[in-house]
Amino acid sequence: FLNRRPGVRYSTFESLRLGRSSQSIASGFLRFWDSLNFKKDMEFVGITVLFLDEKVNSVIHGFTPVGRANHYMPFLKVDFIVKVDRFEVIRCSSMYKITDHSFLIRFISLTIIDEVITGAPEINLQLRLDCSTISK
């Protein structure tokens, strides 16, 4: 499902609210990786993703649990502008904090990810953050 509607409506990372809602973000999709539980024999627990906001260096991370990982894999395209609809916003535990943002976007069964073709916010994906410093 490609989004071809002009004037994409979305929230900025700063305007996100806690809880499940019909919030949307439009952002650059930076990177994703498998999340493993090191205490349980490297068990796969889901996928962690990084999103870049239209403000330079404003990054938030997202997470999809193992049960939804296969569903979202085809939509995880690095260096694309994406719109993410219907997700849960939770406080990010300091134990799992990988960005400066205090919230985490959690994919739920209603979450939709679309590539934004027109009406996208201006996000310079050439100014990518150095993700090599983030531990996996």
Number of domains: 1
Number of helices: 1
| Order of neighbouring strands in the sheet with most strands | 1-6-7-4-3-2-5-8
> What is the rounded distance between the termini?
30 Å
The CATH H-level superfamily is Nucleic acid-binding proteins
Order of helices and strands: EEEEHEEEE
Judging from the principal axes of the Cα atoms, what is the shape? globular
Spans of at least 5 consecutive residues with low confidence = 1-6, 131-136
Q: Supply the CATH class.
A: Mainly Beta
CATH architecture: Beta Barrel
Instruction: Give the C-alpha Rg.
Output: 14 Å
Overall pLDDT score: 80
Label the structural class: mainly beta
What name does CATH use for the topology? OB fold (Dihydrolipoamide Acetyltransferase, E2P)
DSSP strand (E) fraction? 35-45%
Main beta sheet: 8 strands, mixed
Helix percentage:
under 10%
Compute the number of strand runs: 8
Organism: Brassica oleracea var. oleracea
Protein name: DUF223 domain-containing protein
